[in-house]
Amino acid sequence: MVLHCNASTASVSKKGDLKGYGTMWYHPDGIANILSLNIVKKNYRATFDSKLEDGFVVHNGNLSQCVFEPSKKGLYYLGVTNDVGTTLVTTIDSLKNKYSVRQYFSVNKAHFLQNTIGRPGTEDLIKYVKGNMIPNCNITRDDIIHAEEIQSLK
After folding, report:
1. Across the chain, where does the E strand assignment appear?
2. N or C end of the chain, less CB within 10 A?
3. Which phi and psi (to 5°) does residue 49 adopt?
4. 19: Cβ–Cβ under 8 A, 6 or more apart, which residues?
């Protein structure tokens, strides 16, 4: 599957099974997993009443519920913490949130490049990029530094 967004396109070839949801497409370097409301409602009761709450409510069978709230840009999401056992959407850590989608995409390209050329250290990779030693390289010093910062969280 090919996904298109404001940063670029990504080819997604992995699928996984999400408990209570079923089979879904998965991008290991993506910043979030997008679920189809149509599929969610096949497994759970989903409600939306903008007079009561500005969010989609997914009701679990055990009387608990998850509320997908709108982001500043209008996309509904489920904010989760690392101590949640089962979630419907995986989001990125708070440090990753400070980057735009385009910056995060460039960070992933920097990781890919670093791995492809034998995992040089961050300072060496910056020297290669600044010295134009890598043909057709479209990452910057900042992309490499951001990649290092995010990688330190993993």
Report:
1. 2-4, 9-11, 14-18, 22-26, 45-48, 56-59, 65-70, 76-77
2. C
3. -140, 100
4. 86
Check: CB of residue 57 under 8 Å from CB of residue 64.
no
Q: What is the pLDDT of residues 118-131, one digit of tens each?
A: 888 889 999 999 99
- Give how many domains the chain has, as a whole number: 2
Do 144 and 106 fall into the same domain? yes
What token pair was written down for 114? 């670093």
Integer-rounded Cα radius of gyration of the chain = 19
pTM above 0.70, yes or no: no
Task: Dump pLDDT digits (tens) for 67-116.
Answer: 888 888 787 887 765 444 444 443 444 555 566 777 778 888 888 888 88
**Beta strand pairing call for 14-18 and 22-26:** antiparallel
The residue to which tokens 């708070």 are assigned:
94
Same domain, 56 and 115: no
